[in-house]
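Today's session is about reading a structure prediction critically. Students often jump straight to the picture, but the first step is always the sequence itself: look for stretches that repeat, for charged clusters, for runs of hydrophobic residues. Only then move on to the predicted structure, which in these notes is written as discrete structure tokens rather than atom positions. Here is the chain we will use throughout the hour.
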Amino acid sequence: MKQGMNTVTFTLDAISDQIGVDPFPLLIDRVPADNLKRCDLQAE
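Below is the predicted structure for this chain, in token form.
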């Protein structure tokens, strides 16, 4: 990943309305909700 805006695409088996990505998985996350984002669903 580079600095600035990045685009990440995930391919899932089931529909999800939120995803969570924790950039620092080794640390205790005191506010886990700040890693959740709403999904933009696109059919392929």
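Discussion point for the tutorial: The CA atoms of residues 14 and 36 lie 17 Å apart.
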